[in-house]
Design brief:
Length: 449
């Protein structure tokens, strides 16, 4: 052991939750230490679209998050405005609110500028940010978390802190934990996230007496191109099939539909991960292709034609003037051609007849796929942020197996579970709201001392 450092607030993880908490505590005069595993701060937040959003109404919040903790949803919804105010306080560009998906509303903002402002706030208040550093375990004294040993290339430092925040971004980057908690074939998912988000916060929290949240299997992600020949942050958005997956239909390798594809793309990604070989066959016709090719992602500059992206980048993509000719091609990828043809014909005839007995059902975008040419693109799940995590209360305090707070320990962002359940109502908002709550506690602790 080389050094000892006393700080008011120890923050593990320099992404959205960690930097929000660190900046809020620093602006109140606290000495903060941020420990970041990567050589740079920012995490998934700086790879994101930078839209701070949540559901448009409380009714939609409840409807779109089946399996999520009602008390956490309430906090994330009620304190969205506080999080927006905090972004504005940073002085970065925050746009007026615009719709997001069919149920959300939120603000595009300058995420890079915001993270840089947070870092400056920490340093200006006499705090530190160490990059490329690790924490092996938390120090616990009489049941309370009192700091940690931080290791970097200069050696080990014992950090003493009355309050610690776990904000290491969940476990999207851990195939083993995805397989353990999310789906039997979870290890086949792509990490559409900062690869360093490997469940370290969960491991550290459990070591200090924390419990896991219920409903560990939820995640936000997208249906991605398959196979992904190139893979990295540039492809996270470029390879996303989003709109095509919701407008068309999806079959598994047995040639069967397995979900209401029209709900949302993140739910399609969750269902694909449960299918044989964790692959899905996205089907659409020329009418949908034109709609998709003309549709612009909210924060992208140019519309994306998912078929053209898959075809030109070596993904499995096929087109033909008849469904039978199309399925003759997709049989080479392992999809049952005869059953696929029967499924599409049955789907089209029931939609044409306005038959409500479709199984699985189809709530939105009820349109027969009838205008040739027809298109098939293979898809797989990309996991952006896991929804299960450490059990927390509505103040963001980490709880043990008996639902008692572990003294001195908070969790925020994707380390905290479980607010979204099977749905998704904005990861940046959840991270910012609970980051601010962790800062509130750190400030109160410091003032009481
Ligand atoms: C392509 C893409 C687009 C997205 N678009 C949006 C969007 O528009 N709106 C939205 O709401 N959400 C979006 N998201 C999701 C959003 O980015 C995440 O929900 C959010 O960043 C989660 O915040 P976090 O602080 O939990 O994790 P992160 O922001 O990932 O931060 C976690 C940090 O912890 C670090 N870390 C990991 N392990 C350790 C350790 N042991 N010690 C120290 N540090 C560690 C990581 O390196 C990282 O810097 C998007 C994500 C991606 C990838």
């Amino acid at each position: 052991m080389t050094d000892t450092l006393d700080v008011d607030f120890l923050v593990l993880g320099g992404g959205m939750a960690g930097m929000t908490a660190a900046s809020a505590a620093a602006c109140a005069g606290l000495r903060v230490l941020v420990v970041e595993k990567n050589p740079q701060i920012g995490g998934s937040a700086v790879l994101s679209g930078g839209k701070l959003w949540t559901a448009r109404s409380w009714e939609l919040m409840e409807q779109e998050t089946p399996g999520g903790d009602p008390a956490l949803k309430r906090v994330a919804f009620d304190q969205h405005a506080r999080a927006v105010d905090w972004l504005r306080r940073s002085g970065v560009a925050v746009d007026a609110a615009t719709p997001h998906l069919h149920y959300g509303l939120g603000h595009n903002f300058d995420i890079h500028g915001y993270i840089a402002w947070c870092a400056a706030a920490v340093i200006d208040a006499g705090g530190h940010i160490v990059r490329g550093a690790q924490v092996d375990h938390l120090d616990v004294d009489a049941g309370a978390v009192v700091g940690a040993v931080v290791s970097d290339r200069d050696g080990d430092t014992r950090v003493r802190a009355p309050r610690t925040l776990l904000a290491t971004g969940g476990f999207a980057g851990s195939p083993a934990l995805l397989e353990c908690f999310v789906a039997a074939r979870g290890a086949k998912a792509l990490a559409r996230a900062n690869p360093a988000n490997r469940g370290d916060g969960l491991r550290l929290g459990i070591g200090a007496g924390a419990a896991l949240s219920p409903f560990m299997k939820g995640f936000y992600g997208h249906v991605m191109q398959s196979p992904a020949l190139k893979w990295g942050p540039r492809e996270f958005r470029y390879y996303t099939h989003g709109i095509a997956s919701v407008a068309g239909i999806i079959l598994n390798k047995a040639g069967e539909r397995f979900c209401d594809e029209s709900l949302e793309d993140h739910q399609n990604a969750q269902r694909i991960l449960e299918q044989p070989d964790a692959k899905g066959l996205l089907l659409f016709d020329q009418a949908i292709r034109e709609q998709v090719a003309q549709t612009q992602w909210p924060d992208d500059n140019a519309p994306t034609d998912v078929f053209e992206v898959a075809r030109s980048e070596g993904g499995h993509a096929a087109s033909a003037d008849s469904w039978a000719a199309l399925f003759a091609q997709t049989a080479d990828w392992g999809f049952d051609a005869a059953q696929a043809l029967a499924t599409v014909e049955d789907y089209n005839s029931r939609i044409d007849a306005d038959d409500d007995r479709l199984t699985p059902p189809r709530i939105r975008a009820r349109r027969a796929l009838s205008r040739p040419p027809f298109f098939a693109v293979e898809g797989q799940a990309g996991v952006t942020a896991t929804h299960g995590g450490l059990r927390i209360d509505p103040q963001g305090r980490v709880l043990d197996a008996f639902a008692r707070p572990v003294p001195g320990l908070h969790a925020a962002g994707a380390d905290a579970g479980n607010m979204h359940g099977e749905g998704y109502v904005g990861g940046l908002n959840f991270a910012a709201v609970f980051g601010l709550l962790a800062a509130d506690h750190a400030i109160a602790t410091a003032r009481a001392a």
